[in-house]
Design brief:
The mean pLDDT is 92. The chain has 19 helices and 2 strands. A two-stranded antiparallel ribbon has the order 1-2. Helix content is 76%, strand content 1%. The protein is mainly alpha-helical. A hairpin with a 4-residue loop joins β1 and β2. The longest helix is centred in the middle third of the chain and has 34 residues. It has 3 domains: 129 residues; 121 residues, no CATH class; 218 residues, no CATH class.
Length: 496
């Protein structure tokens, strides 16, 4: 199977690019829907095959090519992006049926939507497998351009403002990260490495001991500060609530479940590559600071009565903080929790955003206020919301309960019991906030004067709840096997 890896590496982002071209030539909305789904299926299959190849290697060394790197972390992210991307394409017709004309005619807006979505997906699939820091930066910038168009797709004033804010702030952050890459490239050039491949992950790892500590530290800080904006870490998370709230639900799912952890993977690779020069104490402190700050900033918002998608956005801030905390601790227990948390959060958060489709059909006002008593209006929508919130809150048997436990225990093992204790209290408060949202929004007293509107968007949510809910249970069981595995030990060592 490894002989096919170079082919799959090209095919995985290549098929969505073909889909983008096909979307632009579709003549009718129906044709655009069919072409999009017909292209998304083989793309997801190819990505899943590549992910399976990476995961099946366990703790073996990463597979490398001239421009790609495939390790266990790549496999986890590829599987997540493939699944969430396919689900987003599957539910997009339900969104587009009632989305209006956006900036142009209904038929044309649908073609533009799918074209931008395919470009976004292609870039997302490329991020975990790219083998060069500069190329990774370029691809992340491509995700910004495509996803900004999608955030503003509805054409409403609020969506346009959110899209512009997202584009401006993340581009500013990535500009800071680019300065870090330039500093790193200069250091490599001074050491005699002048070509672009001097920024390959394995080249950086091999040269890290010889790099000057001061300039490498500057590069590391600039890179992490810039990437933090795209990850959505506090205090540079300002774009995140607005973008998640205003984007179409299928796009919000990809932003939260796929984009944020993909960029976080690049930050993790930067840490692993530069740690020999910068020092483990410094790299750990930066990740822990971003992670703990994000959790602490998110928790007060989780206690507020927020519109559904905005609540999920602040939940993303919390969970990216948890993952950052785990990477900062860096022990095998914590890394096992990180792997499980990335996958579990993706499934739970995607389901939550998909539930917004039928929710906003039966209660349009839920776009601006907290939902209430959804179960009396739509049991299937309430079930999806309930599964999502229960999983995100970390209530057993959610895989996020196990992942957070592993990360906190990993913090104790790393010699940071105080940080773990603070995080535990914050997560407990976040759990109570989400539990309140579950009780009030799903099973509480329904809003007055609400009219029941039957929606075709309620049909796929039943299947998605079953599929993603089963996936969450499977992850909880699989998570028990992660601690002590060679797969996790290799990731914890940062071996490439």
């Amino acid at each position: 199977m490894t002989d096919l890896v170079p082919i799959l590496v090209a095919v995985v982002p290549g098929i969505p690019l073909v889909g983008m071209a096909l979307a632009l030539i579709a003549r009718t909305p129906r044709q655009a829907d069919l072409l999009a789904l017909a292209t998304a299926l083989p793309a997801a299959a190819a990505a899943t095959a590549l992910a399976a190849t990476a995961l099946a290697r366990g703790g073996q060394p990463a597979l490398r090519g001239q421009w790609y790197l495939l390790d266990g972390a790549s496999g986890v992210l590829l599987a997540v992006i493939a699944l969430v991307g396919l689900c987003s394409f599957a539910v997009s017709p339900a969104y587009l049926r009632t989305s209006g004309r956006s900036w142009t005619t209904a038929a044309r807006s649908r073609s533009l939507y799918y074209a931008a979505l395919f470009l976004f997906w292609a870039a997302l699939l490329a991020v975990p497998i790219v083998g060069n820091l500069a190329a990774a930066w370029l691809i992340i910038e491509a995700t910004t351009a495509a996803s900004a168009l999608l955030v503003a797709f509805s054409g409403r004033r609020e969506a346009l403002e959110a899209g512009w804010k997202y584009l401006l702030l993340t581009t500013l952050g990535l500009s800071v990260a680019l300065l870090g890459i330039i500093v790193l490239a200069i250091s490599q050039a001074n050491a005699g490495h002048h070509d672009l491949h001097a920024l390959d992950w394995h080249a950086l790892r091999g040269a890290a001991h010889a790099l000057p500590k001061d300039s490498t530290l500057v590069a590391f800080v600039l890179l992490l500060a810039g990437l933090a904006t795209k990850i959505g870490w506090a205090p540079v998370h300002n774009w995140l609530p607005d973008a998640h709230s205003e984007a179409p639900a299928p796009i919000s799912a990809l932003l939260s479940a796929a984009l944020l952890p993909s960029v976080l993977l690049i930050a993790w690779r930067v840490k692993a590559m530069l740690e020999p020069s910068v020092g483990s104490n410094t790299t750990h402190a930066v990740f822990i600071a971003f992670g703990l700050t994000s959790i602490l900033v998110a928790v007060p918002f989780l206690w507020q009565s927020l519109p559904w998608k905005r609540l999920l956005a602040y939940s993303s801030l919390e969970h990216m903080g948890v993952i950052g905390l785990g990477i900062g601790f860096g022990t095998p227990l914590a890394i096992a929790g990180v792997v499980l948390h990335v996958a579990g959060h993706a499934l739970a958060k995607a389901l939550g955003f998909y539930a917004a489709l039928p929710l906003l059909r039966i209660d349009p006002a839920a776009a601006h206020r907290a939902p209430a008593g959804v179960v009396s209006e739509s049991p299937s929508t309430a079930a999806a919301m309930g599964v999502s919130l229960l999983a995100l809150s970390g209530l057993p048997p959610s895989p996020l309960f196990l992942s957070e436990l592993l990360i906190l225990l990993g913090g104790v093992a790393a010699g940071d019991p105080l940080i773990s204790a603070i995080a535990l209290i914050a997560l407990a408060l976040g759990f109570l906030g989400l539990l309140h949202a579950l009780i009030e929004g799903v099973v509480g007293e329904r809003a007055r004067h609400r009219r029941r509107a039957r929606s075709r968007a309620e049909r796929p949510i039943v299947a998605l709840t079953a599929i993603l809910g089963s996936g969450l249970l499977a992850l909880a069981a699989a998570g028990l096997l992660l601690p002590g595995s060679s797969f996790v030990e290799t990731l914890a060592r940062g071996a490439l």
